[in-house]
Amino acid sequence: MRTVSAHGIAGEDGLAGSAFQFTASMVAPSCDGGQATAGTFLSREFTLDAIPAEATLRISALGLYRAFINGRRVGRDLLTPGWTCYDDRIAYQAYEIAKLLLSGSNRIEIWLGDGWYRSQLMWAANPIINCWGERVAAIAELRAGGELLLKTDEGWKSGFTPVVRNGIYYGEDYDARIRPQDSHGVDILPFDRALLVPHETGAVKELEALSPIDSWTEADGRTVYDFGQNAGAYTRLRLKGAAGAQVRVEHSEVLGPDRFFDNRNYRSARAELLYTLSGEGEEEYAPLFTFFGFRYARITLIGQADLVAITMVPVTSVPVTAGGFTSGVAAVNRLVDNTIWSQRSNFIEVPTDCPQRDERLGWTGDAQVFAGTACWLADSQSFLMKYLRDVIHDQRADGAVSHFSPDPTRLHPIDGRGEWAGSTGWGDAIVIIPWQLYLHYGDSAVLEECFPAMLRWLDYLWNISNGPIIRPPAVWGAHGFTFGDWLQPVGDNRKPRPTVADDCAATLYHFISTQLTAKIARILGESVEAARLEKRADEIRAAFRNEFFSPSGRIAHNDQTSWSLAFLYGLVPPEYEEAARGYFRRVAEETDGVIGTGFIGTPALLPALTRLGMLDLAEKMFLNRKIPGWLYQVEQGATSIWERWDALAEDGTIYDPDMNSYNHYAYGAVCQWLFEDVAGIKPLEDKPGFEEIAFDPAILPALSPVSAWHDTRFGRIEAGWTLEEGFVTCRLVLPPGVTARLQSRSDRKALKANGATVEQGQDLRLAGGEHKITFSI
User: Fold this and answer.
1) Closest listed residue to residue 622, CA positions, set 368, 324, 367, 336
2) What is the four-CA torsion angle of 278, 279, 283, 286, rounded to 10 degrees?
3) Which residues are catalytic?
């Protein structure tokens, strides 16, 4: 079985196919008591004269569903029908279910959960429930050979499931003593079937289960299990005991000093399981309608109950890894693994900020800085395209792009907080994510679909301050408010290091998105718009020079973020470049290798230093083990990427649990630099989708040996290098259909490709196959 989806996506549990026109009704259990009440199901008995050779169940829901035919689960997908802006479109799945059918009497049950549709979203100060509706319901059709065998209509029954309460943040309570019984009828809900679309990406799947690596019992008798990995996941329990006995499962990401179980950073998210035993032999349970972010699980047994076994089951929408990077530094290799785990944990239907607390929202700023890395580490094409459709739907009438999407505040504004939309660096996701998808997968359809929204966004930016320089207000939620370089470290609070100001950060991104959209317009043949945007980009560039550069060539705030973004995107005036390089080097050196960048500056820092030839500084900053630094996290035992550089102090003390996630992928965006600069595999905009690459590795001696691989539409690319006594040996493997550009450079002596000398100024093309490149540095 394989899952049906749009855009050619098919998983292993459903059928690939095109859009389908439902004739069934959206049916709600009449016994449903509303959000946070007892779970309900829909059911129907039906008779078959014979088992058909093929039979297809197409199904969707308001809320979440899990379907059973004759007591057997339909498919293995999780959290279906998924999460979208439900007022724009709702996914449906299709399953081949002939092997579940019987000759004669059959029964179908559709269990329903609150899910993102109506359980709490947002944090405790401004919780939103019933965001898209108050009633859970399902729509389904069963067909064989074109014949309709069954559909949801007024003839269905309903009743209560053993899931006595559930919610994305809440967790799940399950009473195994309850046996589903038809007790009520159904209500037909008004519903626009045009909202239904085939699932646009791969469904959420289970990964291989992880067993505990350690456990201990606390003084009060509760047992804590350490699974050795922080992940978006749930536990699977095997239990035995008396009817009515219970097991409670709490979750945490980290331990405080002395192995103190600490999940204060979950805030108002209860994030627990409570299972009540049936008392009928050995029982197995994993939640149906929720997930958690955790490494540790604490078990409390209530009454006569025994825990036979426990495992962690990670879940994700991107189960297949598409790239890998290793070096001679073990901590760097662990950092890459941590990034993979943070992507898996947060790519659950939408690219969320975190999988654990009362948030788990699709923040656009996090997604745009990570998009390039996401495409290196997993096939993210359909996943991010689905997300972009939600971003487009959430875009405001004035062109402002939501801070997160799907956006509950669009339907339920929060008094006194203004629009949750319009921040530079966040709203620019509508430009930057499509561009990264184009570079990686070579399909201009994503550019075409998003182009109108890009134009609306650029007009919004220009209109914030009626011109090229954006001057964001300081008041949260005001028109044009920006998060700036979010969580940028400032060092000693008695004498903080310089940070980028909001107007500079906003104008930098104003230029980045304008220039990029002009390129996109050229690709799409939109020559009039391209010319208009190119002119606008020139205006921003000139205004930026006048506003933010002194006559000596010093940028206004002289900070790492300003310099990184200005150099990387060509905003340093040529006449100032020599002086600017000196300023940038000094700003980087003064911190003795400590990072001074936040969410928008960090992805640009090492690429800027590398491409300016400051490899010594790039290496030192990357390998820094002090706060703030990537490898500090690793040496503190991190198994995923932290939200904050200082999330844990050196003594293990937790910093500010009110806003502290230990599974946030944003700073893992450094992996894009590892693939493109250190391994040297650079996708090219004039030959996107890896039809042609530039092979240009940056040799950082401390990282030797380096090895990387990436699966493309043409096959696997492999690249690596070793350094021995100043002599570099590179290995490059290209699949058929891929070529690589290799250019000689003055800092590479005696450059040879496959034994042949590459002359100065020569631009060599390497075809599919294995290549050996050597040079001295």
Assistant:
1) 336
2) 30
3) 359, 643
- DSSP-based helix, strand, coil % in the chain, nearest 5: 25, 30, 45
User: Do 760 and 766 touch, CB atoms closer than 8 A?
Assistant: no
Rounded Cα–Cα distance for residues 369 and 429 (Å): 8
User: What CA–CA distance (Å, rounded) separates 293 from 660?
Assistant: 13
Q: Which residue has the tokens 């075809």?
A: 767
Q: Consecutive 10-residue runs of the chain (777 residues): their mean pLDDT?
A: 31 58 98 98 98 98 98 98 98 98 98 98 95 98 95 98 98 98 98 98 98 98 98 98 98 95 97 98 98 98 98 98 98 98 98 98 98 98 98 98 98 90 98 98 98 98 98 94 95 88 98 98 98 98 98 97 98 98 96 94 98 97 96 97 94 91 98 98 98 98 98 98 98 98 92 95 95 97
CB 354 within 8 A of CB 661: yes
pLDDT value at residue 418? 85
In order of 182, 479, 482, 600, 697, the CA distances from 476 in angstroms are 51, 9, 8, 19, 43
DSSP states of 611-680: HTT-HHHHHHHHH--SSS-HHHHHHTT-SS--SSTTSB-TT-PBP-GGG--S---GGGGHHHHIIIIIS-
**Closest C-alpha among 738, 711, 690, 9 to residue 378:** 711
Q: Which amino acid is at 233?
A: A
Count the Cβ atoms, other than its own, within 10 Å of residue 641. Answer: 30
Rg of the Cα atoms in the chain: 27
Any bridge partners for residue 44, and if so which?
A: 108
CA–CA distances in Å: residue 130 to residues 62, 88, 115, 120:
11, 16, 10, 7
Q: Please tell me the distance from the alpha carbon of residue 26 to that of residue 138, in angstroms, as a whole number.
A: 5
Nearest of 565, 427, 568, 582 to residue 488 by alpha carbon:
565
Q: 538-576 burial string, b = 16+ CB within 10 Å, else e?
A: ebbbebbeeebbeeebbbbbbbbbbbbbbbbbebbbeeb
Residue 693: which of 738, 736, 753 has the closest Cα?
Answer: 738
For residue 15, the model assigns a pLDDT of: 58
Burial class (CB in 10 A: 0-12, 13-18, 19+), 55: buried
* Cα dist from 498 to 65, 392, 551, 560, 625, whole Å: 51, 35, 20, 8, 21
Among 351, 356, 361, 374, CA closest to 232: 356
| Residue among 326, 354, 369 nearest 605 (CA) | 369
Instruction: Give dist(CA 599, CA 473) in Å, integer.
Output: 20
Surface-to-core class of residue 619, CB atoms within 10 Å of its CB (0-12 exposed, 13-18 middle, 19+ buried)? buried
Q: For residue 51, which phi and psi values (nearest 5 degrees)?
A: -80, 120
Structural contact between residues 470 and 424, judged by C-beta atoms closer than 8 angstroms: yes
3-state secondary structure of 140: strand
* Residue written as token pair 């001074």: 596
**H helices present in 328-377, as ranges:** 330-346, 364-377
Cα three-residue angle 188-192-195, rounded to 5 degrees: 130
Strand partners, 348: 350
Query: Which pLDDT score is estimated for 12?
Result: 40
Minimal CA–CA distance to 461: which of 538, 522, 514?
A: 514
CA nearest 29: which of 184, 193, 192? Answer: 184
Distances in Å between the Cα of 518 and the Cα atoms of 15, 26, 35, 389, 455 are: 40, 44, 47, 21, 10
Cβ neighbours around 110 below 10 Å, total: 26
pLDDT of residue 493: 83
* Distance between CA atoms of residues 473 and 750, nearest Å: 55
User: How far, in Å, CA of 407 to CA of 400, rounded?
Assistant: 13
